[in-house]
Amino acid sequence: MKKIIILGAGMVGKAMAIDLSKEYKVKSVDIDKDSLNYLSANYKIETEVLDVTNEKNLSNVIQNFDLVISAVPGFLGLQTMKTVIKNKKDLVDISFLPEGVLDLDDMAKEYGVTVVMDCGVAPGMPNIIAGYHHEKMQIENFEYMVGGLPKERTFPFEYKAPFSPCDVIEEYTRPARFVENGEMVVKPAMSDTELLDFENIGTLEAFNSDGLRSLIYTLSDIPNMKEKTLRFPGHIKMIQALKAAGFLDYSPIKVKGKEIVPFDVTSEILFKSWKLNPEDKEFTIMRVKVQGKENGVKKEITYDLYDEYDPIEKISSMARTTGFTATATADMILNNVFNEKGMFPPELVGKRPECFKYILNYLEKRNIHYLKTEI
Q: If exposure means fewest CB atoms within 10 Å of the residue's CB, which of 13, 137, 172, 254 is most exposed?
């Protein structure tokens, strides 16, 4: 039986461990013992307390595994990725690290490993969809919007964070890059807000965020691409107010003679307000739209995702849709469906029809459905 080690046992890390433990020997590591205790007490999953920033210890613990999945917070992602590559281990990464890592391609090839980055629900599935259709048609416009939201709207933010709050705040502060008429455009995060109606949910608010990532460079012949985040109306005004008032600043300020970083204080407070408890009901919604020409005929293809908290496995929707995209990819690599060496953003995996279909079939078996419509 092949062996997988998962770095990080947060909400998504737990979901991946549970999913993969049904077919593989799985070990989960995390710096938080409580997160690990849940897994070892309820599933056949080996656990170990580990600080991934200790390169020597991380290198030692991954030695006997066939594949590594990294689900660490984004700020730890780059160094963790480099350590795994140097240890000649195939890697599926969902840390959504802020740095560009396509230049690690040579390093991954040198060490003979397969690395698939950004392998979640978004970025992740939209990239896979874009890559697949890029091989079949001339895409003129690609866009997607995505959000993970609580079923119960609670004052003041009407939001719960299904992953690290500091990574969520990053979405609100990192400038948004998109492509317009073949040129990259940079706008502030949270700009160009618009209201959109969704069946069974009602009205949501969309705003610019930096979710295109590698697509800007790998599918650069698509003249128009954009990504937006979805929240309940009113949420983003509150975040804009926090930002304008300095609560998200990284520069230290003095309070009663002591230096503090506003961002650190704000993220600690928001962590409590945004904490998604294990049995909180929530949903994930995403719409991916591809427009262009196939064999000279105009086409518009839309993929709609709506997924809810799983009360049986007690896994959040965001953990399911993010984590199972990664576990599908891990399963695909271990079954030798995808075995090319190097650094691969998901769109380069999606270019292969067998990989595209493999991942969608894997998700379907777990009741994660991407509803495709074509006009």
A: 254
